[in-house]
Each structure stands twice: as C-alpha cells, then as structure tokens.
Design goal:
about 130 residues, homohexamer, AhpD-like, about 0% strand
Chain lengths: ~130, ~130, ~130, ~130, ~130, ~130
C-alpha cells in the first residue's frame, strides 16, 4: 500500500483547515506558479501542520496573529480567519486575539484585521 | 474601601505575568519617561490583560508571536518568553509557536526568536 | 457635577481632530468589536492626545509620519491626513512631511501616502 | 553643447526601464507633489541606475525582491515587474525570484507578489 | 565664483544637524562604500534638507518618528535624536514624540527608541 | 543504492553555499530546536536552492536583498554576505546591490547592511 506523499497530506490538511478558500489560492497559482502551490502544501500544510505539541486551533491563533502583525496581508487573513473558525476558534476569540495585539502592534493593523474579520463573519452568516 | 487604580491593577498583573523582568523595564523608564511606564501598566496590563475570553496563557502565545513577527524586539521577547513560561506555556510549546511562524514570517525572524528563547531557557535552568 | 469619563473626553477629541471620518471608524466597530472602539477613544484620544508638551498639529505630523512608515495603512492615512488638515497642517506641509520621509523609508511608501493625500485634497475641495 | 540635466537623464532611463507605466506615476504626481517626481527621476533613475557594476537586469531583480519584501507595494510591483520584463528578465525568472524569497520572507508576501505578476503577465499578452 | 556642489552643501548641513556623529557615519563608509556616503550627503542633506516649507526642527521630528516606526534602526536613532536636540527639539519633546507613536506602532518599538534616547541624554549631560 | 534524503541534499548545499558559518547556525539549533534546523535544510537548501532557472549567485543576490529589506537580520546577513561571496558575487557587487536598495528601502537599512558587509570583508581578508 502506498504511503501518502507530502503534497497529498498537505492538500488533505488544507481542505480540513482552510476549506475551499484555501484550495482556491492553490488553484489560482496553477497558471502562473504551480510549484509555489506545491511548496506551500508540502512545507506549510504537511511538514508544519502535521507536527504535534500544538493543536490546529492553537496554530491558527498563531497564524492570524502573525498575519495581523505583518500587515498588508488582508487576503491571507480572510483565508485564515475562516480557517480559525473552521478548527474551533470562536468569533469572540478572533476579536479578542486582535485586541491583544493592540499594545504590541498598534491600532492601525488591528483595525485592518478587525474589518477583514467583520466581512468574514458576515459572509459566513449568509451561507 | 478604596477601589484599585488602573496602575495598581496593571502593576499586580505585570508582576504575576512578567515577574521581576517586566518590573525592571518599568523601573528603567523612571528617569526618562515615567509616564510611558504608567501608560503601559494601565493600557496593556490593566485594560487589555484584565479582559476575559482568552486566558493569560493564550495572551502570551499571541504576544510572543507578535513580537517574533515584528522583528527587532529581542528585549521584549526576552521578557515575554519568560512571561509565557510563567503562566504555563512549556519550553516545547514556545519552540513550536516559533516554528509555526516559519511559513508566514520566514526563517530569519524565527531564528532570532529561537536564539532569544535558547538564552531564556538556559538562564532559568541556572536559577 | 460629574467628571467626564475617559471615553467622553476621547470622543470629544476624536470629533475635534478626525471629525466625522474618525467617528465612522468607531461606529463601524460597533457590530464587531465595540470594546476596541472604546479602547481607542480612551487610550489614543483621551490618555495620549490630552497630554501636553506637543500640540495637536505636532501630534498629527507624527501620526501621519508613522502611518506612512508602517505601510499598508491607507485607510488610517486617509483619516489622519484629514485630521492633520483639520488641526492646522497645510496641504503643502503634508506633502513636505512625506517628502522628508523619502531618504529614511524609501519612495514606494512615500508614493502610497502621496496618492492618499491627493484623493483627500480633491475630496475636501469638492465639499 | 549642453550637458543633460539629472532630470533629463532620469526621465530617459525611466522610459527605457519602466516605460509608459513609470511615466504615468511621475505624471500623476504633477498636481500634488511635482518635486517628488523630480527627486525620483534624479536620485533613482539618474544617480542610482546610471551607476555601473550591476546591469539593469540585475538592478530590477533587486528592485522587485525589495518590493516583495517590503509588502504593501502592489502598485510599485506592477511597474517594476513590467520593468524587469522590459530589460530582459523572463516571466519564469520573475516567478523564481519570488519563490526564492519564500524561506526568508514567508509565503503571504510571496503570494501577493505572484498575483501581481499573474496580472502583469496577462495584460502583456493581450497587448 | 564657484557655486557649491551638492556634496558640499550636504556636508555643511550634516555638520550643522547631526554634528560629529553624522560625520563619523560618512567617514566609516570611506573604506567600504564611499559613494553611498556621497549619495546620502547629496540626496538627504542637500536635496531634501535644503527644501523649505518645514524647518529643521520639524524635519528631525519627522525623522526620529520614522526611525522609531521602522524598527531595527537604533544606530540611526542615536544620530538623529542628537540631531533633533541640536536643532532645538527638547528632551521632553523627544520623549513625547515617542509616546505619541504608541497607539500607532505599539509599545515595543517605542521602548526601544526611549532607551536609545535615555543613553543619548546621559551622554550629552556628561560632555 | 540509496537516494539522498532532503536533509542530506540540504546539508550538502548549505556547506557549499554558506560554508561553516551556515553549519554553525544549524548546530546552534541542536540543543533548542533541532527540528527547525531540519526544516531549514529541507525547505530552503534542498527544495528551493535545488530548483533551476536561477543560479546560486542570483539566488544569493535575492537573499541578501531580502535580508537588507526586512531589517533586524544582521546575523543572517553576515552568513549570506559570506554565502554570496562564496558563490561568486564580488565585494563590489555586494555594495552595489545594497546601494540599489536605497531608493526603495531608505538609507537606514542600507547602512545597517553595509556595516555588516564591512565586517565580513575585513574578516575574510584576515583569514
């Protein structure tokens, strides 16, 4: 019986965590940089997310914190706020994670992240 | 009976979370910018850390993630890696939090944070 | 007679400095993170803007410099370029502040800020 | 016979490197900050691009790497991905330059840059 | 009679603004990148600092704000906090400029800048 | 005959590119985060550096540009300026790469990188 490849493991995890939104990012890379999609699946979603010690909920708390702090990553925040909600972070916790960043990162990036969250929450209510 | 001021609440929380290292930062501000120390105690350690929804362990996970991502904050990482360990994050988890940042922030800032953690872990073993 | 709360002082200052644009940001937080709006009013517009030593014109010069340097804060720049003009910074000075940043921050972020300023100037001429 | 001014040299180089897209940025500055356009032509496109040691292809590789790493510079990336292609970098090389940044800058900024490249490539195919 | 070159104007301004500390930076470039020193003198201290609209005190307020916000620029902050004091900014104002950045940039970078200021203030008292 | 693992390929490449300095970083991770060392070898030095299209000289030009632009990465710059020189970039080119970043990133980060280069050049001359 064949062992799963890193890409296969990564794709399975991506679908469980990010859902269709994450898959769309990988698909959008097809025509321009398919290898980048493969590297993301292998490194991020197989090598890193398969590790233990932290569960996926904790990993997504870390990811959205990092994305808020980086700035200019609204598209990735959209995907990973959805991911956080998918793996069990509540909307109230997402907001609180962003508020916790205020003293360290300043309000402008916190506001940018909150307004992405606001849209994500609204979109999920509709569907 | 008097209600505690925000500074008093902040100082109590700072001592519980950051311990003496955090207190030293506030003390070091005395001669140059005492009001900044007061604002940090009030805003960060009273207004923000007193909020619910997330516990202090989760708040420190968020804080060290943010500091790693910002870069150039080695001194603050030193204080808050200690804080994270003080409120129940394990050394293994600190390392894993930093590894989780790799795909989003890149290895250079992860390495900088890991080497601060290495020194913090060593110092705590000695004492 | 009741003393004003920090939120009340903050809201008064926000309206004087940022005007309706700033109020809209706080209002937009209502449905998603009302506490964040409160923290911004209290910390930024009461605790910090109420301090002396620098006047509001100088504070807005600092704020738009910081926002330009951070990058990815076009929405906040929009609000605070308006704020700067509201408290007495001239359009010519706004442009000159951004040019002064060029040797330290590089042209890309200066250009991003200038093009926000261009829209703000045009919008204010219309109204 | 008159020696060319730095602005004239800069404008000639801008047109050769960035083409009409770069000229449009300078023109867009006319109504708001014409001096900034002049400083960019003089400093970037005369003083710096006129230097030897590296050719323009290498200089554009450096420029798009820097822009990707800064983040929040999608408009400038658009101009300079076009510039890179104009001076002999291939589409495949642009993608590979961005992939090389992944371990150092993280995937979010690499993805943002790749999606700008995707649009640039598509636009050039049409014309 | 000869007109001053841009380098000469830049050097004169550098000496008036940054004093010997700034000169040392240019000198330190001699053995490794003398052209970079020349470009800094010409572009920053001739082209930009010679412009009107803002005076040097305002320009240094902008510069130290930008350096604080960038992070990782402790050496440049040292030079420009001295420069700010040289052209008439008071120590109290330097501290207040940094405090004004807190809500926008977060406390870690403000603390880093304050501790550079603390050393600069102490060094100047000694001499 | 056994195929080389990704770690083995990564380690071979690391030694060819970064030399002993790079190996020391991986070794320093042993006691604190050995898995991070493994991920760097596998992802950076096997998956990414093994790719074609760009040669190692071009890849190191990109890497030191990215590190300069990130800021706060002096230790990594030290390793990768050495790496750049190891794979055929000249000292003059290193300086020119950094000068090319000036209009996009600003002088402070360029100066920080130049002074790391100055030390690297001096150290290599001694040995």
């Amino acid at each position: 019986m064949d062992k799963k490849t890193r890409v296969e493991i990564g794709l399975e995890n991506l679908l469980k965590i990010d859902g269709e939104d994450g898959k769309k990012v990988i698909d959008a890379l097809e025509g321009v940089a398919p290898d980048l999609g493969k590297l993301i699946l292998e490194f991020t979603f197989a090598d890193v997310y398969e590790r233990g010690v932290l569960d996926w909920k904790q990993r997504e708390i870390i990811t959205i914190t990092s994305l808020l702090t980086l700035g200019g990553t609204e598209k990735q925040l959209d995907v990973h706020i959805n991911a956080a909600l998918n793996v069990g972070v509540t909307e109230e916790e997402v907001v609180e994670i962003f508020i916790q960043c205020s003293p360290y990162v300043g309000f402008p990036r916190v506001l940018n992240a909150i307004f992405v969250a606001k849209e994500v929450f609204a979109t999920r209510k509709k569907s």
